[in-house]
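Just curious: can you write whichever protein you like plus the matching structure tokens?

***
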Amino acid sequence: VWVIAAAAGRARIFSAEHSDGKLAELEDLLNPDVRLHEHDATSSPNGRVTKGSGGIGHTFQPHHTTSEHSAESFAKKICERLEWARQRGTVDRIYLISEPTFLGLIRKNIDPETDELIVQEIASDMSRRPASDIRKALPRVL
């Protein structure tokens, strides 16, 4: 059983040896890029001015902030890690606790076979909480 406590800046992976036992932290993944300020990290503008026969106008391109792009990449990395563990038989049940927006990114990027291993999702940012608090948020028996 694995328990994932994740947010855009950090994801912690825990395991439980016994169904009602303490959580042991396996990995602590950090995403420092999510904290960059937009004006420090963005290299292109979100729109451009065009000239045509009708005069001057603006064309706006879909724009994702650097932190949104970083969060998406981090969610993909977590999903790849979970898929890797599933393929090797390391995990057969997953409890996912994540900040709501980041939970949506994980849902978007997880492969269908690994998604089937998720037995419970909790929309809450507990990525910085002690393992004992995370354990209390889960069912008594995993």
